Amino acid sequence: MDFLSVQWQQLAHSSWIMALSALGVFAGLWVYRRSGGNPVMHPLLVGTPLVAGLLYLFNIDFDSYYAGNGVLNWLLGPTTVALAVPLSKQMRQLPPLLVTVISSVLIGGFFATACALATAKLFGIDQLMLLSLAAKSVTTPIAVGITEQIGGLVTLIVMVVLLTGIAGILTAQAIFRRTQVTDDRWQGLILGIAAHAIGTAKAFEKSPRCGAFATLGMGLNGIWTSAFLPLLIPYFLL
Amino acid sequence: MLVIFQYLGELCANLGVVNLPGPLLGMLMLLVVLTLYGKSIEFLDQASNLLIQNLSLMFIPPSVGAFFLGSQIYQQFPLLLATILLSTLLAILFMALLIKKLPNAPSDNA
């Protein structure tokens, strides 16, 4: 029962410093809404530098800030479990389109990750970075778990996942037009697999059905990637 | 309830049943249970909605860490950005073409 005492430690270290994180989110959300939902103004892209700036300003070191956010960090676990709830609602849509959905997730999800690793390798990105970007197409709570497991930097993967999502929604429309993928179900599925929660949010703006398929793509790809990635990664290390 | 499933997951992960993160295993177990059960459970819906809606807040602490990494990593940052952009674009293009090729992909614009 080792993990129980580790988690208790995590909770016990929480402190007022969490208020900084809340401030960051509120400021981020405010800017995002004022910008009319511009993806480059994503709340995390705005809130994170703000909090980092405050830490520098008040001379708080990162480790004590991170430890002070124990409750928030701990909540990520139950939230990962909570993803099962919306996903289970989408499972009912699955049977008639099973073959397409499953093969897209299996092949597409694998390609997305393998492609990221190959590109990183090609650009000569070093090993620790490679490990920290491998899970980039996976929704953040799952990506954090996978990255911890394969030994990457959790601090980096959160940013990488976020940037992936933004890159995805910025490019997806043009690609769908070029390749004539017009069905909103498949657009949603692709957005969910490649651009996780950010793609899913975008898909919901399009139509509920598009969003539902994005949820499905995101959830299934998260599960699938966590299964194959630890086995794939050795081939991309020296 | 969510916490119970997480602990069930972590317990299995600790016992070395399968090599996956504990919370993810917990999610899989809950997914199986909910899919079999087939109805929605209100308190579970509410709790999970609340958590999922506030995900941004939970991601602030780790992403702030990206500003406190060594200079070695910053030197590689442009490459990292290029990798992300290029591979994401390729992945979407690949899947779009894939879906066009799959036989059972009905297409309508209803």
Layout of strands and helices, then pairs:
The complex is a heterodimer of chains A (238) and B (110).
Chain A: H1 2-12, H2 18-34, H3 43-57, H4 62-68, H5 70-82, H6 84-90, H7 98-122, H8 127-133, H9 140-150, H10 154-179, H11 184-206, H12 208-232
Helix pairs in contact in A: 1-5, 2-3, 6-12, 7-11, 7-12, 9-10, 9-12, 10-11, 11-12
Chain B: H1 2-14, H2 22-37, H3 42-53, H4 55-64, H5 71-75, H6 77-101
Helix pairs in contact in B: 1-2
- End-to-end Cα distance of chain A: 36 Å
- Strand elements of chain B, count: 0
Uncertain segments of chain B are none
Counted by DSSP, the helix tally of chain A is 12
The percentage of residues in β strands of chain A lies in under 5%
Averaged pLDDT of chain A, please?
76
Count of helix runs of chain B: 6
Structural class of chain A: mainly alpha
| Helix share, percent of chain A | over 70%
Largest interface: A-B, 105 and 76 residues
Describe the sheet with the most strands of chain B: none
Reported for the largest beta sheet of chain A, the result is: none
Low-pLDDT runs of chain A: none
> What is the approximate shape of chain B?
flat
> Based on DSSP secondary structure assignment, what is the total number of beta strands of chain A?
0
- Helix % of chain B is over 70%
> What would you call the quaternary organization?
heterodimer
SSE string of chain B: HHHHHH
